[in-house]
Write a structure and sequence with these properties.
Blueprint (H helix, E strand, L loop, with lengths): L13 E5 L3 H12 L3 E5 L7 H8 L3 E3 L12 E6 L4 H13 L4 E3 L12 E5 L2 E5 L6 H14 L4 H18 L3 H13 L10 H13 L1 H4 L5 E6 L10 H9 L2 E4 L5 H4 L7 E4 L2 E2 L2 E2 L3 H13 L3 E6 L9 H10 L4 E4 L4 H9 L12 E5 L11 H5 L4 E5 L5 H10 L7 E6 L7 E6 L3 H7 L6 E5 L8 H7 L4 E3 L2
Parallel strand pairs: 1-2, 1-4, 2-3, 4-5, 8-13, 8-14, 9-10, 9-13, 15-16, 18-20
Antiparallel strand pairs: 6-7, 11-12, 16-19, 17-18, 17-19
Length: 471
């Protein structure tokens, strides 16, 4: 982050506004809405009509002299919105010497804090900032947010505020209290958004006095597919689950960008298993999920890709259900789909592949127990998970069962992430390609004629030096 987000409690506090023109008028509007006591230092500028009107009505006080250090003694903040460069620099120097936080309009290098673009559904306030880099972009994001938020969202917050004391008295424990509010905002009480405040309050009180509010919290587990790595590929349902979790057990392949979407105060436990480096056994992971759910917590088991595609999601589901733990599955974009998409490789194609097979390359000793004859046939695509270390064995078995040595093959490493790589070669050179290019994974192998359709030109343009071809 370029700055620390926060909200100033400005009501009844002194704010200094340096300038009196159009720019100052915009900032004055902002300060008055927040309830600040504003002193305006015009510094010789002609007063904008809005500034003049605020002074005439007593909403702001005019001070006809340059700002001085004494003015900042009780000031919460100061805004320098004067066009004259000399006057602006002088005011900034005085205010900083007096240790008053300064926002200097169009002078980001002099700012101690920045004003975001604001969505105001009081008391719900959303600030959007680009750190001063692109104010127009911030305004466009604000417009997009405005378009999806109901106009009466603030009234819903006010109804909730009026009930907080009663809810806390009747449901003192934090998980139970939080679950009540989730039910409140998801249920009939949200009718307030349509202006039906009476119904909203009635529904909330019914919920609070009902048996569900008094019953002990029941835990559950949500097994969530986080996709191949790019946070933009998270599903809406995955985001909702991550925001409601009390505990998140996540794999080692889940990057920090994905974890940024987890509720801030949720407990996070890394339980990743990678080749030769298992942090926890599967039995331990299963026991952890069951224990936290038994304690009434919402547990999210966050997995890369899709939990039911080489993710042991089925095993975990069976273990939990056998112990009476409610389980929900949230599918995700599996690695093969993500890898094919970023490489421009269609996994199926009317001319090249009428079927696709997902297989695992991980095994203990010998060769993977696969139908090699079937996989070697033409007109299909083979996508191999966890196959980097066994690529040579896989290629040998396919060729031995009839696959041509020059069948196209691709290695997609860190698919959908900024440092992804796509390596394209032949089946008989697959192991050599991986060794020469020092592929460490995570990576997925794609074998089949569809690999010839890889969009290398586009990848080279968007990710320089990300594509390599091998004869």
């Amino acid at each position: 982050m370029e700055g620390l987000p926060g909200l100033w409690r400005a009501r009844g506090r002194d704010a200094l506004l340096i300038g009196g023109g159009e720019t100052a008028a915009r900032k004055l509007r902002f300060l008055l809405r927040a309830g600040a006591r504003v002193r305006v230092f015009p510094t010789g500028e002609a007063l904008h009509d809005e500034v003049s009107a605020a002074i005439d009505t007593g909403a702001a006080v005019r001070v006809d002299r340059p700002v001085c250090a004494a003015d900042g003694a009780e000031a919460l903040l100061a805004i320098v919105a004067v066009e004259d460069e000399i006057a602006a620099r002088a005011a900034i120097a005085v205010l900083k010497a007096a240790r008053v936080p300064v926002n200097a309009v169009d002078r980001p290098e002099a700012c101690d804090f920045l004003f975001p673009a604001v969505v105001d559904r009081g008391p719900v306030v959303i600030g959007i900032s680009t750190g001063g880099a692109a104010p127009v972009l911030a305004r466009r994001v604000r417009a997009a947010v405005e378009s999806v938020l109901p106009a009466r969202l603030g009234r819903l917050a006010e109804v909730a505020a009026g009930l907080r004391g009663a809810v806390k008295a009747m449901i003192p424990d934090d998980p139970g209290c939080r679950r009540f509010w989730e039910a409140f905002f998801d249920g009939p009480a949200a009718d307030v958004l349509a202006g039906e405040e009476g119904r909203a309050r009635e529904a909330a009180l019914k919920l609070l006095n009902g048996p569900a509010a008094q019953a002990p919290a029941h835990g559950r587990v949500v097994i969530v597919g986080a996709g191949p790595g790019d946070p933009d590929l998270l599903t809406l349902k995955a985001l909702q689950a991550m925001q409601r979790a009390d505990v998140v057990l996540h794999d080692s392949l889940i990057g920090p960008q994905i974890l940024d979407y987890v509720r801030r105060d949720a407990e996070r436990i890394a339980v990743g298993k990678r080749k030769g480096a298992h942090s926890l056994t599967q039995d331990t992971i299963n026991a952890l999920m069951a224990r936290h759910a038994a304690a009434g917590r919402v547990v999210v088991r966050l997995k890369g890709g899709d939990p039911f595609v080489f993710g042991r999601g089925g095993e975990e589901k069976a273990f939990l259900e056998a112990r009476g733990v409610p389980v929900e599955i949230v599918p995700g974009v599996t690695a093969a789909v993500g890898a094919g998409a970023v490489a421009g490789i269609p996994l199926t194609h009317r001319e090249d592949a009428q079927s696709v097979t997902f297989a695992t390359g991980w095994f203990k000793g010998g060769a993977p127990d696969l139908d090699w004859s079937a996989l070697a046939r033409p007109g299909q695509t083979l996508a191999v998970y966890m196959g980097v270390g066994t690529a040579g064995v896989i290629a040998e078995r396919l060729i031995a069962h009839g696959a041509p040595a020059d069948r196209p093959a691709a290695v997609v490493e860190k698919a959908t992430l900024p440092d992804q790589r796509v390596l394209i070669g032949r089946l008989d050179g697959l192991a050599r390609l991986i060794a020469e290019r020092q592929v460490a994974g995570p990576a997925l192998l794609i074998v089949g004629d569809v690999v010839r359709r890889a969009d290398a030109a586009r990848l080279a343009e968007t990710a320089p030096q990300a594509v390599a071809r091998s004869a």
